[in-house]
Write the structure tokens for this entry.
Amino acid sequence: MTGGAGRGGLDEQEAADLAAPTADVTDVTDTAGIAVASQVSLAVAAKAAAENFPVALRVLPRRYRTHLTALYGFARLTDDIGDEPLPGMPPNATEAEITKTRLALLDDLQADVAKIYDGQQPQLDAIRALKATVDQCGVPREPLDDLIQANRQDQLVTRYQTFEELTRYCELSANPVGRVVLFIVTEPTPERIRLSDSICTALQLIEHSQDVAEDFANDRIYLPREHRDAFGVTEEDLARPTASENVRQLMKYEADLAEKLLDEGAPLIGTLKGAARIAIAGYVAGGRAALKAIRDSGYDVLRSTPKPGKTRTIRAMARCYVKGR
């Protein structure tokens, strides 16, 4: 790979190899690591009520809300281990030490998830809640492991050279969420999984477009190098407080790509009825409302994070529900 690779000049395959679990993840022996993960888990639970859940979640039957909340708790815990300040880390810890700790915690988390499938009782509250969802909805292990692997990759890869590389990352970081949602709300047929993957990849790309400034502040760029080069956008351009014309044109291109994928997956809504239809309509509507917010900002994603209002999202959800796409 050319310049702009992940930390230490790692290419995608090297980083994936390094991010692989470093121990037998079916046996957790590091109780200190689980204790730290427990503190992160408590922090997730404490702020969950303040999060902007997909609007559809509030109107779904309780059984769906319970399972979707459990999925949210697991996904957020995984992300927070990968991104948020870790309890107990010394203030002078080096980046390498922090990365090593995060990778070890992700190994511990995956080991706790494995207990669900090994007939054991998980240690973390978030994983105990997830166990009920797995047991009642028949959720397979692979999408849960993929979400953890995506966060391992985040520790080592901070730049993506091609759109293909980025979509492979989305296959780990986003598509598994949609697959678990399908197990919760409906029968996950191959066609529904295909459409869900398109929706989820689109939603991940939209989030990347919204969070360009925040990601750059954390030394991460999720805009593919090949796209940045095509529009003449440098890393220095992304460090500015407002977007140049080149950046705006790049962000329009990224938004159009995401919208195409979202539209390709949206017919999933029409295959569903009742609460399942509401749930998926809510996710698609959230993506479309976010795209509208990006466009309304003039594609200036550096000045502030474009976010849609709840009213706009609700209206978009109603349209998605009625049209079935």
